[in-house]
Amino acid sequence: MTERTPLLSTEQGRSAALVSAFLRGALAAGLGLAALSVLVMAVWISSPAPDSGPGGALNAAAGIWLLAHGADLVRTDTLSGAPAPVGIIPLLLTAVLVWLVHRAAHDVMEPDEGRAAPSAGSAFCLVTGGYLLVAAVVALYAKGGPTAARPFSLLFPLVPVVAGAVAAGVWTGAGRPVGPPSWAPGRLREALARPRLAERAEAVFRSAAAGTAVLLGGGALLVATALVWHAERVQESFLGLAGDWAGRCAVLLLALVLVPNAAMWGAAYGLGPGFALGTASTATPLALTGRPAVPDFPLLAAVPAHGPGTVPNWAAAAVPVAAGVAIAWFTARWAVPACDVPNEAAWSRRGTALTAALAAVGCGVGTAVLTAAAGGPLGTGALAEFGPVWWLTGAAATAWTALLGVPGALLLRAWRLRDSGSAEGAVAAWAAIPAQADAEVPEQPSRGRRWWRRRRRDDEPAGTEPGPATGTGRGTGTAAAAVPASLPPLPPAGPVPGRAPRYEKDAGSEPYDFLPTDPWHARAAGDSVREPLLKAPETPSDRPPEAGPTA
After folding, report:
1. Per-residue pLDDT tens over the stretch 17-70
2. Is residue 519 reached through a cis peptide bond, with omega within 30 degrees of 0 on the bond before it?
3. Of 59, 261, 318, 372, which is most buried with the most CB atoms under 10 A?
4. Residue 130's closest CA among 1, 36, 21, 33?
5. Which residues contact 318 (CB under 8 A, 6 or more apart)?
6. Given strand 73-75, what is the order of strands in its sheet?
7. What is the DSSP string of 87-111?
8. Please, which pLDDT band fits residue 258 given cuts at 50, 70 and 90?
């Protein structure tokens, strides 16, 4: 629906394009809200004993939609009667909603048939305005319900999240331009327009994204391992929360949208700071201290046991190690794109180290942002702090990836340049062989006959032996150049400059250009005459004189 929405006539002018952009933003917000409302209503209908009517289900859907954008909710229908905050954002639902608004902004920048696309600034403002208008209406509707949003949280982080997704969509729809904006100062535009700076910036971004993705994937692997390790406790928690299939489906859906949150918790655990299970308990690879306040939920049933950590707990440190290796690998590939690149075209050590360090900082910033969204309060008292601390996790991610990524990138750069240097040396050595072939080599003493060496023909002068196999056929013993034994192997990629292609030969053997033409059983004793298999056509001058008749 966000791809093809002919809301207005394509023959209208610029105003029609601007109105279409505004409506596309509102439509993206409406699609996400409608899909979530249908899901919540289906769970409410299938429930055998719902606590509220359809109005309560719609209010819950509106609250969850605002929560997915980063707004903090306040529950008023608690058992104690005191309002309880809810600040844990379902990251999987957030990813779906962000993708919708990003796709809407991307489609606005693609011109329709008969209508030009609006400018980047107009598209950004109109799509963002349309989306935020729907968000304001939803916040007003949820204000009188049991799950209302705090007013300040509607400005931050809801507005930055929407604006960032729209900006990314406008940038991709415009063709991913790389360069300073037109309103930037002249000196800044000149500095940012340098190709090397743009290349370094792209390398930093991609390396940081790779490190963050490895951290997230490693955390998900840790959570999956813990769920399998505590499978019995997880099953008891899942079956104890709901007795009917409708309630179990609701618990399963809630667990699915919180899987990215659990992955960030696992990443924080592997990095070292761990996560808080209430105000008086913290889980780290070294130990689980305090008295944890853990609600009954399947994902929380996989937390480590109380007490000091063991070897399996310490093995979680492999996650940040893998992230540091990923940053080093991606940075080295940018510094030395190929193993046969000249040394002058590769990045310097300083540039490589600086790129890896900046990528580590970017990985720490991304990890801190995701960690801040993955945790938050679940109530008052002991549940006021729940999840990892964002600034500690971000600092730990920066430290791990910088300590491993910077030296790793330098080592990989040196290794790739080492392969390049050996290849260049081999090419130069093989290219120098034709010049060495002109030099005289002293005659080597005979070491006896070899079965693969042919006998001297009758028309050849005595003292002439077949030359070494250098790709030119026969040679004399005083003018043939032998290939030195210390010569490095020729690189397989590309021909050798300044030299004709050589034949391939097996190690330990020399090629020969003759085969016996007479049968083995018909050869007389001591007869070893062999005819050449391939030889040049004879000329009349080379042909021996015919013998005359004998008496």
Report:
1. 889 899 999 999 999 999 999 999 998 888 877 777 888 889 999 999 999 999
2. no
3. 261
4. 21
5. 218, 270
6. 84-86, 73-75, 147-149
7. ----HHHHHHHHHHHHHHHHHHTSP
8. very high
The widest CA-to-CA distance across the chain, in whole angstroms, is 139
DSSP 216-268: HHHHHHHHHHHHHHTHHHHHHHHHHH-SSHHHHHHHHHHHHHTHHHHHHHHHH
Taking the C-alpha atoms of residue 177 and residue 162, their distance in angstroms, rounded to an integer, is: 21
Alpha helices in 336-389 (DSSP H): 349-374
Q: How many Å apart are CA 234 and CA 231, to the nearest integer?
A: 5
Question: Taking a C-beta distance cutoff of 8 angstroms, is the pair 355, 331 a contact?
Answer: yes
The rounded distance, in Å, linking the Cα atoms of 170 and 186 is: 24
pTM (2 d.p.): 0.74
- The structure tokens 């026969």 sit at 474
User: 193, 176, 178, 199: which is closest to 334 by C-alpha?
Assistant: 199
DSSP state, 543? Answer: S
Angle of the 259-271 helix axis to the 390-431 helix axis, nearest 10: 80
Residue 108 CB-density burial (10 A; 0-12 exposed, 13-18 middle, 19+ buried): buried
Q: How far is 171 from 120, CA to CA, in rounded Å?
A: 8
